[in-house]
Hints:
Layout: E1 6-9, E2 13-19, E3 22-30, H1 34-47, E4 53-59, E5 69-72, H2 82-91, E6 97-104, H3 111-129, E7 132-135, E8 138-145, H4 150-158, E9 163-169, E10 173-180, H5 184-194, E11 200-203
Antiparallel strand pairs: 1-7, 2-3, 3-6, 4-5, 4-6, 8-10, 8-11, 9-10
Amino acid sequence: MSQLTYQRPTEPAEAIIEVKKSRFIAQAFPITTEKEAKAIIANVKSQTPNANHHCSAFIINSPFSSGGYGFSDDGEPSGTAGRPMYSVIAGAGIGQVCVVVTRFFGGTKLGTGGLVRAYSASVREVLNQLTLESVKPLIEAELRFAYPHSSNVESILHNSSATITQQTFTDEVTLTISMEESQEQDLLTRLQDACKGQLIIRSSR
């Protein structure tokens, strides 16, 4: 099954809300890897070390996929910050994003329900500030072929917008490629022709 179209940010954004004198600073950043997300979270923490909490949530790829995400309550009661933040992002259909909410405690406890509402509201506010672009649906296919066909296959892939996400070399070559749904039929046909009908294809459909 092909993935659904989703949105991703093109540049960072920031929003600030106040709830019972507690200040919540939400920052959103474009990302493509978990390493980038962790570096951003660490950087935000280093910039405001006197804050009480730096809660976070990130989605590396599509918000509709079953993996590639993470979240942290950073000392807030379990389940009151990171997961609600992630739920707001995924529910908005936004991927490739990392959101960090920095909290400065105002002296009044919000309770678990109040924290969930405050962190969720912070994320909604910063998501509203984002400049977004659509990501076209991508599908994956596994290709298996003999070594003599390698140069032809690589040439075709190099001149397309497809991306090789995994490759294995045993007694034959196995490539996993990611491509736009609209180019699947044409690309796979050209690859099959280049391999003289000896290409084994396993699609993610």
